[in-house]
């Protein structure tokens, strides 16, 4: 297990609160309760750096974490939590749209997706948006501990197809068992290296 130094850089409700930084940034986005915050904690070996919990909607604002003084992870609120609730959908859009549009150092999207679920329209929109913005895209398929190996393979094939991405960008992970962390770090490292060329 590698050691990582991580701390909260800022919590932002709007653009004025984004931290000043030149480091490459990666956003962790995905449906509510997919395991974004837990994944960030697992990647840096911390229990409670990012807010995680059983009730969907744990993460409300954009949380920026500086990791190893060389990359910033942005934890985003989940989407699709009460999709019928137009007010929360609008709040999500207001928070995330400007970030995607004008955060210059944003280099990658890690779409966090529960391995047991087929991606929905929101996931597809998120990945398409990232592709159009020329961001690198990785798909972290979480909760792999909840399925068998063959189920995992099958689900990942379906996830890649639905999102229209190569299966090479998918990484099965279990944040609980800490499986897949090295593989994900490898991809993050090459993304960071690429962004610095
Ligand atoms: N078994 C298992 N449970 C997980 C895994 N990752 C996350 N969870 C659980 O899933 C629930 C939601 O995790 P969070 O990290 O809060 O999810 P989130 O995507 O940040 O949720 P919001 O911030 O509400 O959008 C928690 O109960 C976690 O313990 C995993 O890899 N395996
Ligand atoms: Mg969260």
Write the layout of secondary structure elements.
Layout: E1 6-12, E2 25-30, H1 36-43, E3 62-67, E4 71-75, H2 86-102, E5 106-114, H3 121-132, E6 136-142, H4 149-163, E7 170-172, H5 181-195
Parallel strand pairs: 2-4, 2-5, 5-6, 6-7
Antiparallel strand pairs: 1-3, 3-4
The protein binds guanosine-5'-triphosphate and magnesium ion (MG).
The site of guanosine-5'-triphosphate has 24 residues, from helix 1.
Care to describe what's here?
This protein is of the alpha/beta class and 197 residues long. The chain has a single domain (6-195), classed as Rossmann fold, CATH 3.40.50. The chain is built from five helices and seven strands. It has helices at residues 36-43, 86-102, 121-132, 149-163, 181-195, and strands spanning 6-12, 25-30, 62-67, 71-75, 106-114, 136-142, 170-172. It has a seven-stranded mixed β-sheet, sandwiched between helices. Helix 4 (149-163) links the parallel strand 6 (136-142) and strand 7 (170-172). The radius of gyration is 15 Å and the shape is globular. The model has no long low-confidence stretch (mean pLDDT 93).
Strand order of the largest sheet: 1-3-4-2-5-6-7
Count up the domains: 1
Total number of strands = 7
- First-residue to last-residue Cα separation: 28 Å
List the ions, cofactors and other small molecules found in this model: guanosine-5'-triphosphate, magnesium ion
Poorly predicted runs are none
| Number of continuous helical runs | 5
Reported CATH architecture: 3-Layer(aba) Sandwich
Give the strand content.
15-25%
**Percent in helix:** 25-40%
Q: What's the shape?
A: globular
Structural class: alpha/beta
Q: Under CATH, the topology is which?
A: Rossmann fold
CATH class call? Alpha Beta
* Spatial extent as radius of gyration: 15 Å
